[in-house]
Amino acid sequence: MKRRIVALLAATALLSTVAACGGGDGGSEPGPVRLLLPTGAFERSMQPVLAAFTKETGIKVEAISMPQEDARSRQVLDLNNRAGNIDLILLDDVAWLSEVAAQLEPLDERMAADNVDIGDFLPQLVDVFNIDDKQYAFPLGVSPRTLIYRADLFEAAGLTRPPTTYDEFLDYARKLNTGGVSGFVGPWGRASSNVSIWLELAFNHGLESALSPDGKKAAFNNPAGVAAFKLMGDLYTGGLMPKDSIEFAHDGTLVAMQKGQAAMTILPITFLRAMNDKSASPHAGQFRIAPMPTAAGVSTARYVVTGWGYGLSKHTKNADNAWTLLKFLNDKFQRPGADADPEQLIRPASNTAFANPKTQEIFPDGQIDIVRKALESPETRPGVVQWGEIESVLGESLQQMFLGKMTAEQALADAEGKVNKILAG
Fold first, then answer.
1. Which of 36, 82, 169, 213 has its CA 20 to 30 A from that of 228?
2. Which residues contact 58 (CB under 8 A, 6 or more apart)?
3. Considering the domain boundaries, does residue 225 fall inside one?
4. Are residues 39 and 105 in the same domain?
5. 155 and 259: one domain?
């Protein structure tokens, strides 16, 4: 999955005008290592590890929690100003990495000098944070989206196995859509969520790539892309989802499943443990993950993996301490021991993590094999610096379709035109 950045970061043209705002050289005694945490499951998994780092090394960490999009914009501002106020840059897979790679220090020289080994990580996940054969981060929180369902509702409806095709999937949703329970619920309210689901559905309808090989044109307005758009629209406009799910992000979808408002969803696997938490849901123990269905002619399911790593800012004044923290995180997430917090193991990314008994408890009865298979053949969001803007366009087109203002065909054609203008610009 080696890749190249296929477009230049537009904001870099501004850097010469703000160079006086700071840099990575000199200065006073380094303070705490500063980083941002996206609110949610990854935040919970990181907090005990960061506390352990400070206890072991004496190096303080200033971790600021905020919604992920706020974190994204704050980091870009800090980097563009060369302020150096954020030492480790939060990366949401290649979609964020592509935006800021020019302002990160590749880790390869430091890794070689300190004999840092990343060989136990699944190599496909290491590649998620690799551009031009340069490693920018370690895969600390990467996960695939899978189908998640209520086993007890399936059994009550006489459904003996998860759906394997999209015809079956829609048929199941209709059969389960009864008694105050919706057949499906999804995070249809936020572009970064629903566009990733659309991309995964499109791949499993036969889409090769969302963009052309050179990254300069949209390549999604074809039967596979339209079919995935239409499927998402049919679930919502067909009354198979809660009406307010058009406003849900991941957490709203999680709560709907915990409360028993729906029988199926598509979410990152990280949400399975929260669903099966007895203190949070009366239906705990009934939630299972399943492979993604595929359309006719698609023999192998494909999974969009997203998730977190940290890059080292070129402008940090605290590089050595920040690198020490990166090495610590690499060790703890790559080779979690018996004392690892279960929150850390909801995203297994290495052979050691998969073998950990606590991971097996989170994904019992063969579910761990589904997770591993998904991670061994990952797809990522396109590695172009404009992907955030493109994602917003696709998200708006989905909303227009959900509201009945456009058909799937019209919505995707409209998105194609806007995306091509973005890429041309």
1. 213
2. none
3. yes
4. yes
5. yes
The identity of residue 37, as a single letter, is: L
Do residues 118 and 156 share a domain?
Answer: no
425 residues of the chain, pLDDT tens digit each: 444 444 333 333 333 222 333 334 444 467 899 999 998 889 988 999 999 999 999 999 999 999 988 999 999 999 999 999 999 999 999 999 999 999 999 999 999 999 999 999 999 999 999 999 999 999 999 999 999 999 999 999 999 999 999 999 999 999 999 989 999 999 999 888 999 999 999 999 999 999 999 999 999 999 999 999 999 999 999 999 999 999 999 999 999 999 999 999 999 999 999 999 999 999 999 999 999 999 999 999 999 999 999 999 999 999 999 999 999 999 999 999 998 989 889 999 999 999 999 999 999 999 999 999 999 888 999 989 899 999 999 999 999 999 999 999 999 999 999 999 999 98
Question: Per the structure, how many domains does the chain have?
Answer: 2
Under 8 Å between Cβ of 104 and 78: no
Any domain includes 2: no
Same domain for 404 and 350?
no
Closest CA to 220 of 419, 387, 406, 384: 419
Please tell me the pTM assigned to this model: 0.90
Domain holding 243: CATH number?
3.40.190.10
In this structure, the answer to whether residues 192 and 271 fall within a common structural domain is yes
Residue-number span of the structural domain to which 278 is assigned: 144-303+381-424
